[in-house]
Amino acid sequence: MIRLLIADDQALVRGAIAALLGLEPDIEVVAEVGRGDEVLAAALESRADVALLDVDMPGLDGIAAAAEVRAAAPACRVLMVTTFGRPGYLRRALQAGAGGFVVKDTPARQLADAVRRIHRGLRVVDPALAAETLTSGESPLTGRETDVLRAASHGGTVASIAQATFLSEGTVRNYLSSAMGKTGARTRAEAVRAAEDNGWLL
Amino acid sequence: MIRLLIADDQALVRGAIAALLGLEPDIEVVAEVGRGDEVLAAALESRADVALLDVDMPGLDGIAAAAEVRAAAPACRVLMVTTFGRPGYLRRALQAGAGGFVVKDTPARQLADAVRRIHRGLRVVDPALAAETLTSGESPLTGRETDVLRAASHGGTVASIAQATFLSEGTVRNYLSSAMGKTGARTRAEAVRAAEDNGWLL
DNA sequence: GCACCGCGATGACATTTGTCATGCCCGATA
DNA sequence: TATCGGGCATGACAAATGTCATCGCGGTGC
Questions:
Q1: Residue A17, pLDDT score
Q2: CB contact under 8 A, B15 and A109
Q3: In the prediction, which pLDDT does A139 show?
Q4: From A111, A186, A188, residue closest to B12, measured CB to CB
């Protein structure tokens, strides 16, 4: 019997996945949570064998939650599930100790198999996403560039970004410019979008 | 027996919801599709009583699909499901003939009840979202303002927006400026975000 | 008919943004 | 140690963006 923990912020999806996997004879759903910062406690208390974690969650994102689980409950393996197949997500999830990574538009019947593979210690990675990750490479953005771009992602002015990052306005413009160069964007908004699509802002 | 059609672009979610509702004794899932432009044909062919439609789908968005279904298969009632509780979505969904509207973070067990209510011709609307919709009001944006803002939502320059909308650059700047005024935004990107959050760009 | 309103357009203007040359600091390397 | 390179920071300058006043056109409604 595989003891499974499910973490997803959308209650409907969480419950539906629980119902789907609950139909499997060898899987038992022992915990369901809707926030990243509740994952670890639930994993410990329920003694789950496998944790199915969504990347986008309030409180703590799924990748950080995966790292927590791997550190404090090494017996519990992690399978990440996400809506967005972003190269950077896959890379960081695996670095955080996740055993697998699937996107939400994979066929439903494959999910149970993925859980079983993870439980046996095997790796499960979407092949297309893996290829994309390998070709896209790691983030070319430097630390401050990432900070500034993340601050810019809400759409504010340079002045507000400068305040948020404790930098001079000129410096902010500089980092934005350099980030735009590296992403091939002609606009700040394009750069933000490109970086988000690659998962470089986490 | 309620004959149910499920439309959602994420195969995993679609399958999981099918599994969840398939457990109900009085519900039978008779069709599953992953694109908006496949909804109508599937509804007709499967003679579904209720269509469960996600808003975000490729091909044709769920609201347009709902209008199609109501026009060509009036016997099939529509329940919209969405990730984002945007005021404008609810308004337009109901105008398109949907009988109900639920967000994906409602508890899973309520979904079956919602389907039954819809089947009986009742209305199902998330109360919090309804309140937000009523207070936020209809879109204050004029047609062209919406067009320009939508074209701007990808982050391009004024020149590219002008090309895409067949307008002069000055005119584009004017519409952007006026949209920014109406949304209370200080930046084009902020205006885009505000309009998206309200569902005004659909 | 006439006022009104949304749409499309223009040009001038002040601000904001993006680009560039430059300098500092620190760690790596010859 | 001397030098090099990369990340970090700044200010000046050019280009783009946002703002404003104004105009003509075509419907709508009184």
A1: 95
A2: yes
A3: 77
A4: A111
Strand partners, A184: none
CA→C1' distance for A140 and D6 (Å): 13
CA angle B82–B88–B90, rounded 5-degree value: 50
DSSP category for residue B200? S
The percent of residues in chain B predicted with pLDDT above 90, rounded, is 67
What interhelical angle do A127-136 and A87-95 show, nearest 10? 90
- In angstroms, the Cα distances linking A14 to B24, B79, B101 are 17, 19, 19
**Where does residue B199 rank: exposed (0-12), middle (13-18), buried (19+ CB within 10 A)?**
buried
All domains of chain B in start order, with CATH: 2-136 (3.40.50.2300), 143-197 (1.10.10.10)
Nearest residue to C9 (CA, C1')?
B171
pLDDT at A202 over 80: no
Exposure pattern of A133-169 as b/e (b: 16+ CB <10 Å)? beebeebebeebbbbbbbbbbebbebebbbebbebee
CA angle A47, A82, A179 (to 5 degrees): 125
Q: Assess whether pLDDT exceeds 90 at residue A54.
A: yes
B111 with A187: Cβ contact below 8 A: no
pLDDT digits (tens, 9 = 90+) for B125-153: 988 888 888 877 777 888 889 999 999 99
Residue B101 pLDDT > 90 = yes
Residue B27: in which H helix or E strand, if any? Answer: strand B27-33
Cβ of B168 near strand D (distance < 7 A) = no
* Overall average pLDDT of the B28-54 stretch: 96
